[in-house]
Design brief:
The protein is α/β, with parallel strands linked by helices. The chain has a domain of 159 residues: Isochorismatase-like (Rossmann fold, 3-Layer(aba) Sandwich), CATH 3.40.50. 35% of the residues lie in helices and 14% in strands. The chain has a 6-stranded parallel beta sheet, with helices on both faces. Strand 5, helix 6 and strand 6 form a beta-alpha-beta unit. The radius of gyration is 17 Å and the shape is globular. About 7% of the residues have low confidence.
Length: 229
């Protein structure tokens, strides 16, 4: 990766995720549904384990976690190119509902009656329960999820998004590009992502995502967050 596209991990640089405080940062975990994890093979499960560690780190730093997935009951409009494929996917979900469920390693607990905006009422090691948002099948960006931007992110004055998901060439790319265009600082945790197409994940994190997003490993993120602050 060239210097021009390398992640900026300098808290004095306003383009860096390290320049944004924890309460204005959010971790966005996208489409870790069982069907996608299985489709990605062993790399999918590795991404889930990394995402689990990312969520734990976020909880320890009181960074809100948002788990985004596709709604397994909504069909794209008939004029959409993937309408036919989506119908087949939804039939698979109906036959085996567990395929559409978020992987149990990341499954959020029941929503609380109320959620503290800035972490009051929860210890630093606990964090707040994660948000869980859904979007219609066929919408690639997690930021298209109902209520995510207008309610959750704006309510918390979020400026920086830390993203992981399956697949890298789908929801991760879509969310990262959309987030950048909406004015967020976007960081992609490469090892929290996976793609079923051989070599495509490496192309995405090595060449496609870096011009507009900060691409890091979980280890790089955690160490730089500590040192940079």
């Amino acid at each position: 990766m060239s210097r021009r596209t390398a992640a900026i991990l300098d808290a004095t640089n306003p383009a860096s995720p390290l320049s944004v405080p924890a309460h204005e940062t959010a971790v966005l975990l996208v489409d870790y549904q069982n069907i996608h994890v299985q489709h990605a093979g062993p790399k999918g499960m590795e991404a889930v384990k990394t995402a689990q560690s990312l969520r734990k780190w976020a909880d320890e730093h009181r960074i809100p976690v948002i788990i985004a997935s596709t709604d397994t009951s909504q069909v794209p409009p008939r004029h959409a190119k993937l309408h036919g494929r989506a119908v087949d996917i939804l039939k698979a979900f109906e036959a085996t509902p567990d395929l559409g469920a978020v992987h149990p390693a990341l499954t959020p607990p029941p929503e609380p009656a109320s959620r503290p905006v800035d972490g009051e009422g929860s210890s630093p090691s606990e964090g707040a329960p994660p948000y869980h948002v859904t979007r219609r099948l066929g919408l690639v960006s997690a930021l298209s999820s109902e209520g995510l931007v207008g309610e959750i992110l704006q309510e918390r004055s979020t400026r920086s998004l830390i993203v992981g998901g399956i697949t890298t060439s789908g929801c991760v790319l879509g969310t990262a590009r959309d987030g950048t265009e909406k004015g967020y600082i976007v960081t992609v945790v490469a090892d929290a992502c996976a793609d079923p197409t051989p070599g495509l994940h490496e192309t995405m994190v090595g060449h496609v995502l870096p011009p507009t997003a900060h691409v890091v490993s979980l280890k790089e993120l955690l160490s730089s967050w500590t040192v940079g602050r």
